[in-house]
Design goal:
By secondary structure, this protein is an alpha+beta fold. It is built from four helices and two strands, in the order αααββα.
Amino acid sequence: MRHLILLALLPLAACATPGQRCERAATEDLRVIDLLIAETEANIARGYAITREVDTSPRLRVCYGQGWGHHSRTGVVFCNRNETVVRDRPVAIDLKVEEAKLKSLRAKRNETASRAARRIAACRQQYPVEG
């Protein structure tokens, strides 16, 4: 899901100014840590984690008029198509381990936030806002 969101935002990245791209790159690690913290907090609140399983299997289907040129077929034919199904599956977790992970992520977030602030300052110095 995160990958789809990033792909949806890709056209916006092309329109960003160099200063905006620099700041986005400077805060990338911080955004990832924030996502991991939110996911870990949700796991603790639920009492279990959720993993995504991707299953791809061939499916025999009825197809209508497929192909082009020399290999074209008209009418009704049978064809194989791969079908991908994504399922969410609950997974047991050790709450003590998750709480320790959350504590570690929060400590790492503080360190990463100060590093991101320094990088953002460098970006703003390198690409001053004109206006």
